[in-house]
Q: What sequence folds into this?
């Protein structure tokens, strides 16, 4: 395999483990905390998970290990979209396995959950692992979005596990993938299948987050990568002085990525979906908010600027959110019939009959290309694929119309030339930052500790991440603790609760305090390529979001 000089240099990086884990797997004891309850819908979650609900919190500490000494055969999968650091989770898991015993085996199932069902695997060894340490992407074994949710699938996975004498499966994924892990663990317990299931929290979106999961891996690297790109664009805008750049950022529903990138780069406008929903801001209100900045900057001679748009914004605009919910429900029930309609007029007629009058009015106000994007194939959960909706172009079009009105009224005399960008895939498989390289390695190492002590239905957890690596704390949390019931594809489903931006939290309050100045003045920051080279206080630091959340003031 050809490698770049940078990749070769990254092979030489040794991920840092928390001080408490450096004593080795046989020098780590376990202690249990309180019993746990679900985030909400407690009775429903308890009924769905009778064998794995209410389990205790788990913490590791210095001390002699009391874990049973036996041979472990562990399977591992990467599930869902790429996130920087996944390879280091596997490396940490592998190193802990081999440190415990050279007889232990790690099987990497290829292509995500489907690899488990199809028994498509490779036996991971040091040669393979060493090719991927500290690198981005999921290409070591690949990933996939197959959902493990049917009993037939569980039976097949159980047979695959028996065939290989596997005693544990590690699922590296986001909220949906780890919901699948919880369901699989419950099935195994209910059917006396002697296979443990452990999850590791992955998603660049930042929405797999709670008191036990301070940050999902990949978020740090992705936001650093996007911030560098935004900083480059902002520097270009301040050089050319003639374009307004509308930049849509990946992040699915929550606006964590947009907020963190705003904190790092100081754009003129950063929309926060959660605030848009709270204030019931319609499309026209959002356009006026952006136009206010355009007009104010033009008065200062600045006919350029930066607007950050979260990927999921469209779903938080009240009138559009209602429209999307109705479309999702309609397509969940009649999707096959709808897709077979041969003409656009027939599809419009179908929608007119199926949707409320209010939602159809909103639909008819949207440009045709946006209408078509709202009706594209759904994701595996039956929801609109917001990454395909060109919200940045929709907003710039509406802003242009608002500015034309103001120009006619004599309230604006500047020029408005929009440019459009979507930053998403650029950050999902980037070389992991030092923080993510260390964090992921620790997650994998901790996953083995959970396996060695016999736990199942748990997420590997590393806490105190705002401090230096020496002070990080390792443990595990029952996945059911993080769950509630959500409406998906027309049905109620148990899911890990998504964490949205807290509008009362310190990161948003800091942004709120400074954004008025940023909207008018040119205060751009260019953080540069700070993923892993440079002074430790820069290269090893985590996100501004996490530092603000954990600050005492």
A:
């Amino acid at each position: 395999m050809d490698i770049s000089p940078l990749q070769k240099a990254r092979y030489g990086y040794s991920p840092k483990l928390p001080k408490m884990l450096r004593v080795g797997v046989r020098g780590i004891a376990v202690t249990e905390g309180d019993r746990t309850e679900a985030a909400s819908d407690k009775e429903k979650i308890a009924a769905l998970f009778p064998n794995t609900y209410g389990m205790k919190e788990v913490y590791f500490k210095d001390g002699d290990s009391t874990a049973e000494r036996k041979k472990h055969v562990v399977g591992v999968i990467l599930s869902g979209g790429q996130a920087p650091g996944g390879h280091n989770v596997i490396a940490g898991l592998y190193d802990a396995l081999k440190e415990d015993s050279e007889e232990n085996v790690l099987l990497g199932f290829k292509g995500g959950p489907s690899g488990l069902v199809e028994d498509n695997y490779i036996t991971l060894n040091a040669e393979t692992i060493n090719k991927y340490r500290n690198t981005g992407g999921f290409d070591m074994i690949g990933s996939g979005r197959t959902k493990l949710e049917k009993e037939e699938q569980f039976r097949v996975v159980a047979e695959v596990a028996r065939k290989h004498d596997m005693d544990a499966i590690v699922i590296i994924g986001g909220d949906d993938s780890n919901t699948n892990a919880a369901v699989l663990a419950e099935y195994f317990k209910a059917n006396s299948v002697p296979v443990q299931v452990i999850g590791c929290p992955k998603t660049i979106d930042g929405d797999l987050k709670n008191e036990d999961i301070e940050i999902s891996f990949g978020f740090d690297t992705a936001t650093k990568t996007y911030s560098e790109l935004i900083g480059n664009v902002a520097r270009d805008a301040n050089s050319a002085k003639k374009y307004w750049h509308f930049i849509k950022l990946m992040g699915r529903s929550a606006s964590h990525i947009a907020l963190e990138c705003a904190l790092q780069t100081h754009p003129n406008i950063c929309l926060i979906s959660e605030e848009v929903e709270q204030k019931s801001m319609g499309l026209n209100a959002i356009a006026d908010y952006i136009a206010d900045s355009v007009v104010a900057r033009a008065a200062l001679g600045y006919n350029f600027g930066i607007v950050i748009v979260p990927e999921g914004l469209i779903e938080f605009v009240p009138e559009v959110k209602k429209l999307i919910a109705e479309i999702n429900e309609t397509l969940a029930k009649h999707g096959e019939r709808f897709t077979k309609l041969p003409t656009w007029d027939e599809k419009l007629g179908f929608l007119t009959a199926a949707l409320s009058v209010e939602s159809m009015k909103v639909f008819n106000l949207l440009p045709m290309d946006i209408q078509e994007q709202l009706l594209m194939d759904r994701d595996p959960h039956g929801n609109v694929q917001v990454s395909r909706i060109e919200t940045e172009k929709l907003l710039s079009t509406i802003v242009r119309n608002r500015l034309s009105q103001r120009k006619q009224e004599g309230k604006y005399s500047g020029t408005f030339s929009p440019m459009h960008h979507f930053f998403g895939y650029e950050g999902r498989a980037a070389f992991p930052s030092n923080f993510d390289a260390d964090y992921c390695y620790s997650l994998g190492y901790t996953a083995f500790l959970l396996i060695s002590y016999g736990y199942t239905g748990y997420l590997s957890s590393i806490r105190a991440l705002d401090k230096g690596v020496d002070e990080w704390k390792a443990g595990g949390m029952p996945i059911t603790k993080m769950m509630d019931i959500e409406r998906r594809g027309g049905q109620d489903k148990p899911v890990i609760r998504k964490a949205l931006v807290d509008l009362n939290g310190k990161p948003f309050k800091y942004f709120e305090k400074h954004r008025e100045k940023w909207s008018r003045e040119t205060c751009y920051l260019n953080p540069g390529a700070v993923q892993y080279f440079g002074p430790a206080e820069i290269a090893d630091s985590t996100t501004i979001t996490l530092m603000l959340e954990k600050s005492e003031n």
